[in-house]
Design goal:
- It is a single chain.
- β1 and β2 (11-14) form a beta hairpin.
- This protein has one domain (2-73).
- The longest helix is centred in the last third of the chain and has 14 residues, at 60-73.
- It has a two-stranded antiparallel ribbon with strand order 1-2.
- By secondary structure, the chain is mainly alpha-helical.
- The relative contact order is 0.14.
- Helix content is 31%, strand content 7%.
C-alpha cells in the first residue's frame, strides 16, 4: 500500500503485508539460516515488498473518482439515501496480499 500526496505525487508512506521480523535474520548462525529458509519457503512470501514489487488495479483510489463523477453527473443527489448495496463484509485477518 502506498500513501501519495496527490498534488505532487510524493510518496508519504509504503506498507507491505504480510511482513516479517528482520531481527530473525541478524547474525550468521543456524537460527538466522533457518529463519531465511523458512521465510523463503513461506507461501505468503512475506519477504516480497508488495508496495514496490507488485502492481494492483486502482481499487479504493478509483472509488473517489467514481463517487465524484456520480455527484457531478447528478446520479447521486442525497448522500444519506439508502442504497441497494449488500451488507458489507467485515475485514478478517491481515490486509490484501
Amino acid at each position: 500500500m502506498a500513501a501519495v500526496e496527490p498534488s505532487t505525487g510524493r510518496i508519504l508512506a509504503l506498507v507491505s503485508v504480510p511482513s516479517y521480523d528482520p531481527a530473525l535474520l541478524s547474525g550468521n548462525g543456524s537460527a538466522a539460516r533457518d529463519a531465511w529458509a523458512r521465510l523463503n519457503a513461506d507461501p505468503d512470501r512475506p519477504m516480497l515488498n508488495r508496495a514496490v514489487q507488485r502492481t494492483y488495479p486502482p481499487g479504493s483510489t478509483f472509488k473517489v473518482v467514481t463517487a465524484a463523477a456520480a455527484l457531478d453527473a447528478g446520479v447521486v443527489r442525497n448522500l444519506d439515501e439508502a442504497t441497494d448495496s449488500p451488507t458489507p463484509t467485515p475485514c478478517r485477518g491481515r490486509g490484501p496480499g
